[in-house]
Structure formats: structure tokens, C-alpha cells
Specification:
Blueprint (H helix, E strand, L loop, with lengths): L1 E4 L7 H8 L2 H4 L1 H23 L3 E3 L2 H4 L21 E2 L15 E2 L21 H9 L31 E4 L5 H8 L4 E3 L4 E4 L1 H4 L2 H6 L8 E4 L2
Parallel strand pairs: 1-2, 5-6, 5-7, 7-8
Antiparallel strand pairs: 3-4
Helix pairs in contact: 1-3, 3-5
Length: 222
């Protein structure tokens, strides 16, 4: 199972360049295209053949546009007077949500609040998810392959952590799991060090082994 997957919230253009080159820097549209290629690849090559459950992060936020509720004069910026105003008066003490006004660009779905707008406006990520999940096989999609022009591929970033330090018993479940995952586990201290459950029972003694480095980070694993 894998949930909340993808770079929709936090991926910077420098990280998205691997999907569509410098278009990831050019505009929000370019960033959306990169997210679409990424999620399509994840669904087709990872989720469908290998996972029982997969959730792309924030399809209802980054896969559809923020809607311009009650605002259509794009020659000016929206003001506090724009938006959809509900005529039903607010009743003090009445249970439930009583919406008085929805301003432009705060919501991506329109369940009839503004009859001039559609239910939603899809962005590339939405169409990519739809194509990748098509049954019985993924549908043709412009987001099915990376589009990186020659000379725009970012330089590879050297790994900052080459081995994980481990304080504890490698025969314990955690130690065996790290090895099974292919993680290079080194005895003693590294830039990133894990203290196994058996060692953590005496946390003070285990942490004292890390005091020789100002840059060591310890995570207690139970």
C-alpha cells in the first residue's frame, strides 16, 4: 500500500525537470505537466503491477483548477465584493455549516455554487490519473512518457548518505529488515544513525556513542 504519493505539494522545479525539462520552471502549467508525467509513471509501472492500494497526493487540489467563483472580469484583480454570496441569512445557534460567501480561487469543486462554472476544470494531473487507471489497460495519454529536450536534463545529485549507522543487534527484526531492503548498514556511527529497539532500552548509553560527531542524527526505533 502507498498513500499520499508524489511531489504535488513540495516538489521544486529543479526536482521536476527530470519529467519535462525547463518547462517545469516556465509556468504553473509546466509544473502541472511534470506532475502528470510523474503520477502516470507511478501508477502504470508501480501501482498497477505491484500494489494493492495507491493514492496520488492531492488530485482534487493539484489535478483540477481553483475556480473563479463569482469573478469574471479578468482585466482587474478580484476584490472583497467578488465571489458567490448566499442569500439565506445566518441563524445563530443553528447546527451545521452556514456558508455566507465563497470568494474566488479558494475551492476546486463547484457543486452548483456558481451556475456559470463547471463542476471542475481538469489539469494535466487529473487526465494522467484517469488515463493510467483506465480498465482493462492504461489508455493513450500525452503524459505517458517524459519530455526532456536534450541539454535540459539536470545534473545528477550525489548521494549525501552512503551508509546508515546502526547501534543494536542486527539479528533483531529491525536490523534484518534494513538488510532485506538493501540498505547498507554499518556498525557504529554514520551521518544518519538508527538505534535499534534493544539498544534503545538504555537510551542514554546508546546516545553516548553518538557524541563524537556534531553532525550525527539519531532516530529511536521501537
Amino acid at each position: 500500500m502507498l498513500g499520499e504519493s508524489g511531489g504535488s505539494y513540495y516538489a521544486r522545479p529543479s526536482q521536476l525537470m527530470e519529467f519535462n525539462g525547463r518547462r517545469a520552471y516556465a509556468s504553473y502549467e509546466g509544473r502541472s505537466e511534470a506532475l502528470a508525467i510523474d503520477v502516470h509513471d507511478n501508477i502504470v509501472h508501480m501501482a498497477r503491477p505491484r500494489l494493492a492500494y495507491f493514492s496520488a497526493s492531492e488530485t482534487a487540489w493539484f489535478g483540477v483548477e481553483l475556480l473563479n467563483f463569482g469573478y469574471s472580469d479578468f482585466s482587474r484583480l478580484p476584490t472583497k465584493d467578488d465571489g458567490v454570496v448566499f442569500t439565506r441569512p445566518y441563524q445563530e445557534g443553528k447546527p451545521g455549516m452556514q456558508i455566507e460567501r465563497i470568494p474566488p480561487y479558494v475551492e476546486t469543486l463547484n457543486p452548483g455554487w456558481d451556475p456559470k462554472l463547471p463542476l471542475y476544470k481538469p489539469l494535466p494531473m487529473f487526465d494522467a490519473v484517469k488515463a493510467a487507471l483506465a480498465h482493462p489497460a492504461p489508455a493513450a495519454s500525452p503524459w505517458s512518457k517524459r519530455n526532456v529536450p536534450a541539454g535540459t536534463q539536470p545534473d545528477p545529485v550525489a548521494a549525501t548518505v552512503t551508509a546508515v549507522g546502526f547501534i543494536g543487534n542486527k539479528a533483531d527484526p529491525l536490523g534484518r529488515r534494513l538488510v532485506d531492503l538493501g540498505i547498507l548498514v554499518s556498525d557504529g556511527e554514520q551521518a544518519f544513525t538508527i538505534i535499534g529497539g534493544s539498544a534503545a532500552t538504555n537510551a542514554s548509553a546508546a546516545l553516548s556513542k553518538l557524541k563524537g560527531s556534531r553532525h550525527a542524527h539519531a532516530r529511536r526505533c521501537r
